[in-house]
Structures are given as structure tokens and as C-alpha cells.
Specification:
The complex is a heterodimer of chains A (about 120) and B (about 110). Chain A contains no helices and eleven strands. Chain A is mainly β and about 120 residues long. Chain B contains no helices and eleven strands. Chain B has about 110 residues and is an all-beta fold.
Chain lengths: ~120, ~110
Amino acid sequence: GAVVSQHPSWVICKSGTSVKIECRSLDFQATTMFWYRQFPKQSLMLMATSNEGSKATYEQGVEKDKFLINHASLTLSTLTVTSAHPEDSSFYICSARTTNYRGRNTDTQYFGPGTRLTVL
Amino acid sequence: KQEVTQIPAALSVPEGENLVLNCSFTDSAIYNLQWFRQDPGKGLTSLLLIQSSQREQTSGRLNASLDKSSGRSTLYIAASQPGDSATYLCAVQYTGTASKLTFGTGTRLQVTL
């Protein structure tokens, strides 16, 4: 199946610093990428939707100035957590959407393995 | 508000049992529904996807059904194995939401020897 990678897989940082998380679709071009956040023992909550070359659309309650999203190419989106605080500690998961995978018409999201962020 | 609920929140069964996980959604205008598996600290593995026009999908020991009129989907796991232990999430893509997925609350499954 389609492969989506995230880097880093885990990161520990000090409060007040910024952290960048990358999401890459390795064998397909993603028209849209999504960023989710998951707190322990909770479900995934959509943070934002990003389309290549345009500004991300943030869900209600998500601070766009704190969670900067850049979608510079059809295979790469980045999420930067600015001035991170302990309450930002969470598991961040991206997904990449494609409507055509290996010649097959489909509208499917493929998920990355997640990034564990711990802010001290 | 479009909500997705899963019952039970946690389930423990002995190996070999057949089991059913439930997913309920509040809005019947869905495009598709997907079941995922998540191992602790890991990402998501897609198990089954049911389009709104379909009633069920099967893959190996897994069978997922969809009843839009009642706002329900079930995931049936036959002959459970310890390796099936994980959290199972259902996710709904509602019509007209530009491929956004709304995830359920999840069911944590433990299959014991």
C-alpha cells in the first residue's frame, strides 16, 4: 500500500522552543494533507487541512499562529509547533490524500506513523 | 454536530471468541466509513473501508457492516487472536466535508490466552 512517513518519530524539547514535524508521501502525490493530534487514550482530533501551495484551513479552536503548516510540494507538508509548552505534548499524526494511486481511481487517506512530542 | 461514538470503550475476551465492535454516527449523510487499527504508540492501519452505497466489506477474519438509516456500523472479528489486541477506531467521511474524517472514540481490545 501507499507509504507516508513522518520525521521525527519522537522529539523532546524544552518549553518555549519550536519543533518542526515533516510528513511525506513516498510513492504518490498528495493533493491534500491532514494533521491530527491525539492525547493519551483519546481519539484523533483533526487540527488542520492543507493543500499544496495554499494556506491551511484550521479547525475551530486550533491556533493557526501556534501550529504553522506549510505544504510546499505535493509530497511534503510540515507542522511547526511554535513556542511549545507542556500542554502541547501529544501524538501528532498526518495523513495524505490521493485520488489516484498506481492508476486506480480512489479517494483515500494514508496515515503516517505519528510523532510523539514531549515538551518539558 | 457530527459525532462518532464507539461502544464498548474497552473489551477483554479470551482467545478464539468472536466479537463485535460498534460504531454510531449522528448524521446519515456519509460518504464512507472506515475502520482502523492502532497499536500503542503507533500510527493507524486501515482495515476496511465501506462506501455509502455498500452494506458490508470483508477481509479475512474481519467483516464490517454499514446501516446508514440507523447510523451504525459494526466490525465483526472472528476467532480472535492475541495479535488482534489493539485499539480499533472507526472514522466517518461526511458528504461535502472535503475528505475530512471524523474519528470515533475508539475501542481498546485485549485478547487473552
